[in-house]
Design brief:
Length: 401
Amino acid sequence: VVEDVVDQASILHADLDSFYASVEQRDDPALRGRPVLVGMGVVLAASYEAKAFGVRTPMGSAQARALCPDAVVVPPRMSAYSQASKDVFAVFRDTTPIVEGISIDEAFLEVGGLHKIRGTPTEIAIRLRAEVRQRVGLPITVGVAGTKFLAKVASGVGKPDGLLVVPPGKELAFLHPLPVERLWGVGPVTAGKLHERQIRTVGQVARVGEAALVAMLGAHAGRHLHALAHNHDPRRVRVGHRRGSIGSQCALGRRPRPFAEIEATLAALVDRVTRRMRGAKRAGRTVTLRLRFGDFSRATRSHSLLKATMQTRAILETARGLLTEARPLIAERGLTLVGIAVSNLDTDGYVQLELPFDGPDDDSPLDSALDAVRDRFGGTAVTRAVNLGQDLNPAVPILSD
Ligand SMILES: [Mg+2]
């Protein structure tokens, strides 16, 4: 009997359904049962009633309204979503001490070893869904499996408002008939390359072999996909998972903007991010520029510095270089979102000094003085001249499901 329990898959992936749209339907009874679109220019979330008409995220609002003329369009209310997220995470933490949040509306939970006090993983998952519904009023789907990756696939297949358990021994039978798009990290580009070679299911990916996948998709993606198709994912659920990156992004809307204005927005984002890094005493080495275009395609550009820093000037120079590299792409497709993130963060907030000591690089007197003013008088107390009168539109993250 004990073996049975130990043998059970014990990783839960819990993911709220159409999160923002569900919060809107919860708070306004008139919206329940109706197609709801959140977001005015771009659809950030769509209720399942709207998805039934083919609405997806992200999609332009005009296109979504053409597909679903009866849809109610509401503006996003980020503070309501943040509160709902906090409430749901409280339920997660009452379920198990081992919770790893991955975004505002999803988390991995490790529930192995809780059978004496809380029952089997399946029983725990059933109770978790009921509690989220009762305490927060939102539908949530839970996938249960032996690996993180498979638990996430299971919740995706189990949506909406579902529970899907993949028992040990049945992993590949569940995984292999699924379309390749279900694999973590397979977006339209990778899926396209696989389709060109008549590879449509995960089982077909598994049979291709690692070398062929690497030749097709590059070393990183090829190895990643090979591992996933065989359900190799050794990662454990990590509590209090320290953030791997610190970033900020900004929606620009669909009107074309001069390049100088985009550069100014980037500078404001770098100011914000480096101030947070210094507040958290964390230096980082890799700067990533994120871009989203008018056709909803995305691009990222990264550059790694020789050593970790939290200095505004060094990170801004790197970010500007990446933006300049992407300039032709921006001119061609039109930019609707720009973001910057710094990763490869020092885990202990300790910046290694290099010889010769010419003073710690990350103790720029200008940065410290600006931080002090902004801490005291607010983030907009001191602004770059180029950012005067500019409003940074906080970008509400687009959630896929
Ligand atoms: Mg979700």
